[in-house]
Amino acid sequence: MAIDALSCCLRISSLRVLARILFTCLLCLVPIAVLAEDQTAGSSITGTPPPRLPVVRRLSEQFLEQLDQQRADLAKEVVASETPYPFVRGTFHFHSRLSHDSVGTLEEITAAAKATGTRIIGFTEHKSREVDVVATNAAGWRDGIYFLAGTESSNALHWPGREGENDVRFLCHLEEIPTFDREKYDGIEIYNTHSDAKDEPISMLISAMVMNMGAVRDHPESAFCSFLDYPADFLARFDRLTIAGRYPGLAGNDSHQNQALRVAALPDGAIEVRDYADEVVWTDNGLRAKMLLAAFGQKENPVERTELANVQLDPYEISMRHVGTFLQLDEVNEQSVRKALRNGRIILGFELIAPLPSVGFWVERRQEPVGTVGDEIEIKEGMQLRVDLPATAQIRVVRNGQTFASFEGKQLTLDLHAPGVYRMEALQTLAGQQYPWVITNPIYLVEGERQ
Ligand SMILES: [Zn+2]
Ligand SMILES: [Zn+2]
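# zinc ion complex -> structure
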């Protein structure tokens, strides 16, 4: 059913995992912040990250209004800067009407791409007996957007070879696959929107959405952020994989545009909520129903079933903006896109938190850039790691899965003395909650001859 994006496991483990991760980060942070402070201007991150509010609070009118306001304020601070390695916005793991669980059209998808600055879309349709979903789908340039036609099956996103290029395969829905053969895939999802939503207690999530239907409708982007978590489990596995050898990670948007809630009042005073497939996902005939009826201005029970609201929770534009997979390439074509994916020239940006018109994470020596994410670089005397963000954030540089430097600011320069697998993440605190904004693939610094 349609709410399966929000359903499955009724786990509250995400809260515990998040708390554990944040606590662990804090422990590592103390000596590291001092190290970073010696090398850059700005202030180090101090204090305890805020505790996660319950979902019913995160969907309240008051919270969503505050989040909308603070997102708008942060967006005003964003200023793009020149970086030596420019990135192009893409979105991967994407479904259209060719999949059994979506009715989205190519026109809607193209419009969403244009609205979000997305230039590359990697379709991954569910396979079908009736139609060849790869041959039928858009591939190559269409109306200014570059498309890859592919499939999703057995936890693999698969883009069959085209224009002389080899197949590309990424493992998806990591939470369902405890172990796998890394050689069978070119990389993994290090974030997936459905996986993220699934770890909320579903009954609470639907109930919170229904009770706050007006607020959800009026603040659709902030409401979409309500389930956004730092992908701690995925990143822990990604760190282990990359420490063992170069391995790319992308974001799975898993966009379907199929999450709708249709609220109806029934003659007996009950309220009924159905999803896009017309399945009942929530009913109530008690106090909550009365409150909802009042909220919708219904003073008396209707004579017949009456629809009160129909809210699309995941329009393509919002689920696309939610997270982007930014690829480092100069020119968009079949070869360059596949190469960037295979080589991990990838940065994830959560743009409902703040726009990401530019992002930089690279190594330089004597002010000359020598490589960026996905690259393997021989470490030499005088090399420095550079971070450049378009707005102030809580920056964390991770080396071999451990916090290496932690800092609040826009730019960061760190002297490099040791080989290792270095990646960067930037977090934002909005409305008292911490959200991931940027997560990069690693730069691999290997032992080289000293000069
Ligand atoms: Zn699907
Ligand atoms: Zn999917």
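# post-check
Residues 260-312 form one domain.
The chain is about 25% helix and 30% strand.
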